[in-house]
Specification:
Blueprint (H helix, E strand, L loop, with lengths): L5 E7 L12 E6 L5 H9 L17 E6 L3 E5 L10 H17 L3 E9 L6 H12 L4 E6 L6 H15 L8 E4 L8 H13 L2
Parallel strand pairs: 2-4, 2-5, 5-6, 6-7
Antiparallel strand pairs: 1-3, 3-4
The structure holds guanosine-5'-triphosphate (GTP) and magnesium ion (MG).
The site of magnesium ion has 5 residues, from helix 1.
């Protein structure tokens, strides 16, 4: 798929503020600092569409981007950032779960996981919650440029193994790197296929 245009539409902090639900939407979620915004920039070939930050917890609202005037990418706030207050965390969680459960045009959810680490409880809990709610998703293991491919593979296998505790199916898995651009074509192809199925 060719990206002809990628535009910021708006930010929202509650479901009623989201833009009209006329386009199929694909959302990116994962821990703070996992690389959600960087991945959106990689997919759209723009360096500064989504704000990338060395400070975790930067994206505190849901940001919507319209692509090719046909579909939208959504940058969700990162979960698991300890430095925000509990009440603020509850607010994020409520908004994010509200969005995931009730957004009628949400067509695909990508859960980003840092490929450098062995399975983390928070990521597994989030994936278990999606499965419980019957929300289809794909996993994207990010920052693969930072470690050896063998370790990436080991961590992916361990994650899948850990998922067997609560799921019988095989997850859809991508690998990505904002540095080597790994995964860009595969993820765009997946989105393309998903929009064609509508
Ligand atoms: N080497 C490398 N660095 C990456 C990659 N993706 C993201 N980073 C770096 O990781 C940091 C966090 O990236 P972001 O894209 O801002 O992460 P985020 O998930 O949007 O973070 P929050 O919005 O805070 O939740 C930045 O310093 C990025 O440059 C990658 O694939 N490879
Ligand atoms: Mg971000």
């Amino acid at each position: 798929m060719r990206i002809q245009s990628a535009k910021f539409i708006k930010s929202a902090t509650q479901l009623p503020d989201c833009p009209s639900a006329e386009f199929p939407e694909f959302a990116f979620i994962g821990r703070s600092n996992v690389g959600k915004s960087s991945l959106i920039n990689l997919l759209t070939n723009k360096n500064d569409l989504a704000r990338v930050s060395k400070t975790p917890g930067r994206t505190r609202e849901i940001n919507f981007f319209k692509i090719n005037d046909q579909w939208a990418l959504v940058d969700l706030p990162g979960y698991g950032y300890a430095k925000v207050s509990q009440s603020m965390r509850d607010q994020f969680n409520e908004f994010v779960s509200d969005y995931i459960l009730h957004r009628e045009n949400l067509c695909g959810t990508f859960v980003l996981v840092d490929s450098r680490h062995s399975p983390q409880k928070l990521d597994l809990q989030f994936v278990a919650w999606l499965i419980d709610c019957e929300i289809p998703f794909a996993l994207i293991f990010t920052k693969t440029d930072k470690i050896k491919p063998k370790v990436v593979q080991k961590n992916i296998n361990q994650f899948k193994e850990a998922m067997k505790e609560f799921s019988s199916g095989e997850p859809i898995v991508f690998q990505s790197s904002a540095s080597t651009r790994e995964g860009r074509q595969e993820i765009l192809m997946f989105i393309d296929e998903a929009t064609k199925k509508l």
